[in-house]
Amino acid sequence: MLRSVILAAARSDRVERLVETAPVSRDVVRRYVAGAAVDDALRISRDLVDQGLAVSLDYLGEDTTSPEQAEQTRQSYLELLAALSAAGLCPPTEVSIKLSALGQMFDEKLAYSYAREICQAATNAGTTVTVDMEDHTTTDSTLELLMQLRKDFPDTGAVLQAYLRRTEADCRELSGPGSRVRLCKGAYSEPESVAFQSRLDVDRSYVRCLNILMAGEGHPMIATHDPRLVSIAEDRVRWFDRTPDSYEFQMLYGIRPHEQRRLADAGHTMRIYVPYGVQWYGYLMRRLAERPANLTFFLRSLGTR
Ligand code: FDA
């Protein structure tokens, strides 16, 4: 219930203005976001890479409604990739993009052409792109554009959300040779007609999808902080005889850092998804919805500055 309320607030311009203009403690945002500028993204990436972790950088922004905003997002990624390459961080740093930030909502062709440019820049820099998945109304369009991108950039990663009823079938479709697929639970508020509603059903779906991807010929990217699912995934790595370069674990910056270290120390590739930029509102609200206990911390900070 609280999760749905927070996710509804994530879509509200009024609440967004309220939260953004409130004296939100910088610590709350900093817990999940690297900072506002490319230099912050580079600094945090360097720090994580020096600790033996891989990184996926996300320039914050979504639901772009104007061509100017979409162009600005494209430009930011091109600058980011040039800076990462110059800093010698590609690989193990890649980038994650949201098609809605590139204009998918009002011009799919534009979003596709910008995504292509970003994939080309990533290839030139020696790294890859993963296309984030957003709410279910965009799933078909995102997967279609992803398949187009993969024709020229076969390393482009997909994201599948275990809470969607369709995802087992999508996993089968996307488990072919070399296919990079990030499997996550899903972060949006979705209706029962398309998504499992209970935690147990989502977790069961996650395991079914994980089994398909691990048995397949692709490169599964296991994106969860859930201790039970991590343990099941470690078991599947052994069961399917997966070599360390044929799969990876992924977690979000600021969440379970000790577990991130433990998995890396155990010999798994551990990639940290690091967002940066000033448009942190939607991202932060989804993180609060995942763990309503964080809300207390957040609300307290509203009153302490
Ligand atoms: P769950 O929410 O059950 O959390 C398990 C445990 O992890 C909690 O008990 C807690 O200890 C810890 N935890 C989880 N969230 C926390 C938080 N916010 N603060 C503090 N502790 C927390 N979703 C999506 O729809 N599209 C996408 O493209 C992506 N991309 C993506 C990339 C990566 C690398 C990750 C790790 C996740 C995503 N997600 C995503 C988000 C994902 O769908 C999901 O919402 C979150 O990962 C939370 O789900 P868990 O699997 O961690 O389980």
From TrEMBL:
- Kindly name one Pfam family recorded for this protein: Pro_dh
Name its pathway: Amino-acid degradation; L-proline degradation into L-glutamate; L-glutamate from L-proline: step 1/2
Output the GO biological process annotations, alphabetical, semicolon-separated: L-proline catabolic process to L-glutamate
Question: Highest taxon of the source?
Answer: Bacteria
Repeat as a keyword of this entry, yes or no, is no
Residues that coordinate or bind FAD: M133, Q161, K185, G186, A187, T224, H225
Q: Which residues form a coiled coil?
A: none
SUPFAM superfamilies cross-referenced by the UniProt entry: FAD-linked oxidoreductase
Instruction: Enumerate the cofactors the protein uses.
Output: FAD
Q: What is its EC number?
A: 1.5.5.2
| UniProt GO molecular function | nucleotide binding; proline dehydrogenase activity
Q: Which UniProt keywords apply?
A: FAD, Flavoprotein, Nucleotide-binding, Oxidoreductase, Proline metabolism
Q: Reaction catalysed by this chain?
A: L-proline + a quinone = (S)-1-pyrroline-5-carboxylate + a quinol + H(+)
The record's remark on the cofactor is:
Binds 1 FAD per subunit.
Residue ranges of every copy of the Proline dehydrogenase domain listed in the record: 45-297
State the protein's name.
proline dehydrogenase
Organism listed in the record: Actinocatenispora rupis
